[in-house]
Amino acid sequence: MSTHRTGGGPATIKLVVAFAAVYIVWGSTYLAIRFVVETLPPFVMAGARFVLAGSILYVWARMTGAARPERFHWRNAAMVGTLLLCGGNGGVVWAEQHVPSGLTALIVATVSLWIVLVDWLRPGGVKPTVKVIAGVFLGLAGVGILVGPSQFAGAQRVDPIGAGVLVFAACSWAIGSVLSRHVKLPSAGLLTTGMEMLCGGVSLLIFGSLMGDWGRLHLSQVSMKSIVSLGYLVVFGSLVGFTAYMWLLKHTEPARAATYAYVNPIVAVILGWLFAKEPLSWRTALAAAVIVTGVVFITRGSRRPAEKRGFPVEVVKPEEEEAQLSESGFMGDGSKLMATRR
User: Fold this and answer.
1) Interval 77-94 mean pLDDT
2) Looking at the chain, which runs of residues are DSSP E strands?
3) How confident is the model at residue 76 (pLDDT cuts 50, 70, 90)?
4) Rounded distance between C-alpha atoms, residue 81 and residue 338, angstroms
5) How many H-runs (helices) and E-runs (strands) does the chain carry?
6) 112 contacts 104 by C-beta, under 8 angstroms
7) CA dihedral defined by 243, 245, 251, 257, rounded to 10 degrees?
8) Whose CA is closest to 166, among 302, 259, 291?
9) More confident residue, 317 or 124
10) With pLDDT > 70 as the criterion, what percentage of the chain qualifies?
11) How far apart are CA 243 and CA 22, in angstroms?
């Protein structure tokens, strides 16, 4: 799919700031989540966060001219948002009670391989290339390293239950990602993301209530670190990072913008080691190298011209491209409900 743009390129400083936002801010959300769940119940916390961020995005989109969504738009947004945020991000916030934030980011980075598998197995699915298949096996091997024998490479393995929940979360995110490409949603990307956040946030609050989160919420025991981290997730993770990514999609190639998927896990591992004293072992380093290499294989192997996949080539206006790019992409933040369509 070709895209025509007009006008000169953005200033270098703007590109640097935008990439810093998606690289560092989004990579830091895993550490922020860890700090939040230290004294706040995970599902209620995540639900409140996304209801607040989604409300801001929805109101802003409507105030800037987005059309009012139809009832079926809300139904589809509810399905996608529940899979992405309740199943996907909900699994992440729960697992971070048992799995270090850096290792969580590494396992979550395998979401791209689950998207490949779900997109392949669905009716009329797209068969992956050899390079993509190799990336899938590398990603699985990386997870295997993390949950392998207890003393492999001189380090303890990841909690297997926590790792299992993260794999489930990645699968839920992948299903929601593929579903979002095949259901009708509003053409305004900002509005769609706000609706998905709202619906996903409500589903998290409901699930948290069923799990007894409200009974574990003791305001007198909530630390200032958790409160500040929650505010950081809403403002910087959900709003600043999202805005920077959408700007990058308009002013640089989508493939360059998508490189955050390679960088975020490394940033999360380093920040977890620096600020949360999470162990940085040879096991972690080896798994990081294997998983990130697999993500690179999958991302680059998926870039095939549209005509070679049997789809017509069309010219897309910038405002239409923004809507097309408003999908799932990453779970640490949860606001990243977008990825380049293949």
Assistant:
1) 96
2) 2-3, 315-316
3) very high
4) 12
5) 16, 2
6) no
7) 180
8) 291
9) 124
10) 82
11) 9
Q: Between the CA of residue 50 and those of 146, 160, 192, 212, 231, what are the distances in Å?
A: 30, 28, 13, 19, 11
Could you tell me if 169 and 88 are in contact, meaning their C-beta atoms sit under 8 angstroms apart?
Answer: yes
Token pair of 259, please? 């490189």
Question: Exposed, middle or buried, 9 (CB in 10 Å: 0-12/13-18/19+)?
Answer: exposed
Task: Find the angle CA(137)-CA(141)-CA(145) to the nearest 5 degrees.
Answer: 175
The predicted-structure confidence for 19-34, as pLDDT tens digits, reads as follows 999 999 999 999 999 9
Greatest Cα pair distance, the chain, in angstroms, is 60
Contact, 126 vs 342, CB < 8 A?
A: yes
Cα–Cα distance, 119 to 109 (Å, whole number)? 17
Decide if 152 contacts 301 (C-beta within 8 A). Answer: no
Residue 97 is classified by DSSP as T
Question: In the predicted model, is pLDDT for residue 209 greater than 70?
Answer: yes
- pLDDT per position as a tens digit, 171-202: 999 999 899 989 999 999 889 999 999 999 99
92 with 169: CB under 8 angstroms? yes
337 against 236, higher pLDDT: 236
Q: How many CB atoms lie within 10 A of CB 60?
A: 14
Asked whether 284 and 104 are in contact (CB, 8 A), the reply is: no
d(CA 130, CA 91): 30
Print burial letters for 251-288: b (CB count within 10 Å at least 16), e (below 16): beebeebbbbbbbbbbbbbbbbbeeeebebeebbebbb
